[in-house]
Design goal:
With 455 residues, this protein is α/β, with parallel strands linked by helices. It has three domains: 129 residues, Gyrase A, domain 2; 127 residues, Four Helix Bundle (Hemerythrin (Met), subunit A) (Up-down Bundle); 153 residues, Rossmann fold. It has 15 helices and twelve strands. Helix 7 runs antiparallel to helix 13 and helix 13 runs antiparallel to helix 14. The radius of gyration is 29 Å and the shape is flat. The chain starts with 19 loop residues before the first strand and ends in a 7-residue tail after the last helix.
């Protein structure tokens, strides 16, 4: 892709002509630091800093790095990637130096003196996007991979960075272009004998296939977004059932205050951890019961809100007959019920269709069985899928627009193929927005500004 000024906002059209540099490895003392340089002056900077007149592309050179006065800074490795065969699509270089703060500062001054400027957050990836080295979904996957904290997040981000979502929408685009060709053939050649009757009806099958694929991905988008942001599990139950004790057992520390006094927990207490390789936030909530106490009533309200917004719920009940009545209205399919205080004896109670796990959160009795079931449920609902998913609200918004347009197209096919053609074009435009090909400058700025400097 050839970079053009219309990719940038007013006042930014010259920025891509700059040569940029940044420390891409972590700041602070380290064995090795890696600097990146990209732009039209890259080879000039390699010559000025590393003394290489003709650097062999993709070959590591061991050189002495020098400042503008010719004084040595450090000895390290430099590698040149000539555009367009580079991460950014431009001439691009990496300098590997030692990682002391003094070396980092001296190298930064040397790059600036040689004609480069400090890169903005995400500017390297933005240039890669603008030069056609990746689409916007792949850039977002790269950002998620950098931020990944669990194995599940890493796997999902890598699939997206590797073009998983791109492969899906390119298939959609091919199907919709075929449908549009059929529709326009019917419109442009209605009286031609060699053109089949009702040619636009041939568009029904590819439109339907794309529409069903989009709906399936939308149905699964909640799982993908939960993995990216973290799975939320609310621990709910009546007062003094042992919710806080169970949270502490899960966390392996005293995260919540435990007391025999009912109603001790008044607010929602969150603890983050990894379960089955996925990020999970457990929320300990106030006991569910009717109360005249204004503060406790607010805690109950927040507990109900947390349970409604959660991806899963763990209901904690003890030996009291009415405990199940308190949590039954908010439980959903695949939620887990823990019958706590198994070490002090249990009463039989009706739990409907829900499976009960007897435990003692205090002593640990039955906890391993409960944790195994919890891990199994999390992996089943949120574990890795073969295909990439819609991980962001932006993705979902684009596909919802396309689905709405294709639903209208199917209705219009028989009576008004012209309108159906316009609807298919609207769906294709929504796919362009998903890929970052449409005019969404504000979205691009928001996405790339969240990258770290040097990426």
């Amino acid at each position: 892709m050839v970079k053009t000024d219309d990719l940038y906002k007013e006042g930014e059209s010259e920025n891509w002509r700059d040569t940029i540099f940044a420390l891409s490895s972590g700041s602070g003392k380290a064995g090795v630091s890696i600097f990146r340089v990209s732009g039209p002056k890259t080879q000039q900077i390699v010559k000025a800093v590393a003394g290489l007149n003709q650097a062999k592309p993709r070959y590591m050179h061991l050189k002495t790095f020098r400042n503008e006065n010719g004084n040595p800074i450090d000895k390290g490795l430099v590698v040149l990637f000539q555009g367009p065969k580079s991460f950014t699509g431009e001439d691009f270089a990496e300098f590997h130096s030692h990682g002391s703060q003094a070396v980092i500062e001296a190298m930064s001054r040397a790059f600036a003196d040689a004609g480069a400027r400090q890169a903005e957050p995400g500017e390297f990836t933005r240039r890669a996007f603008d030069n056609g080295k990746m689409d916007l979904t792949e850039a977002e996957g790269l950002a998620d991979l950098i931020d990944a904290e669990t194995e599940g997040q890493r796997e999902q981000a890598y699939r997206q960075m590797d073009g998983g979502l791109r492969q899906i929408y390119e298939g959609w685009r091919t199907g919709l272009i075929d449908a549009l060709a059929a529709i326009e053939g019917d419109i442009d050649f209605p009286d031609e004998q060699d053109v089949p009757d009702d040619l636009s009806h041939a568009a029904h099958a590819p439109i339907t296939k794309v529409l069903m694929d989009m709906k399936r991905l939308l149905d699964d988008s909640g799982r993908a977004r939960s993995v990216r942001r973290g799975i939320h599990i609310a621990i709910i139950g009546p007062p003094n059932a042992g919710k806080s004790t169970l949270l502490n057992r899960l966390a392996g520390r005293d995260a919540a205050i435990v007391s025999n006094v009912a109603g001790t927990t008044r607010d929602v207490i969150d603890v983050q951890m990894s379960v089955a390789g996925l990020p999970v936030t457990f929320s300990d909530t106030a006991g569910l019961r009717e109360t005249d106490n204004e503060i406790e009533a607010e805690g109950v309200r927040r507990a109900m809100l947390s349970s409604q917004q959660a991806d899963m719920r763990i209901g904690v009940i003890s030996k009291h007959e009415g405990d199940m009545d308190e949590i039954a209205p908010v439980l959903q399919k695949d939620d887990i019920i823990v019958l706590n205080k198994a070490d002090i004896g249990l009463n039989n109670m009706n739990t409907g269709d829900f499976k009960i796990i007897p435990v003692s959160a205090l002593s640990g009795f039955g906890f391993e069985t409960f944790y195994d079931l919890l891990s199994e449920r999390i992996k089943l609902r949120f574990g890795a899928r073969e295909n990439a998913g819609l991980t962001r609200a932006r993705h979902r918004d684009c596909i919802e627009k396309a689905v709405e347009a294709l639903n209208m197209a199917r209705v219009s096919l028989k009576s008004a193929p012209e309108l159906a053609g316009d609807d298919v074009r609207s769906a294709l435009h929504a796919i362009k927005e998903l890929a970052g090909e449409a005019d969404i400058e504000a979205v691009l700025g928001a996405i790339f500004s969240r990258f770290c400097i040097g990426k």
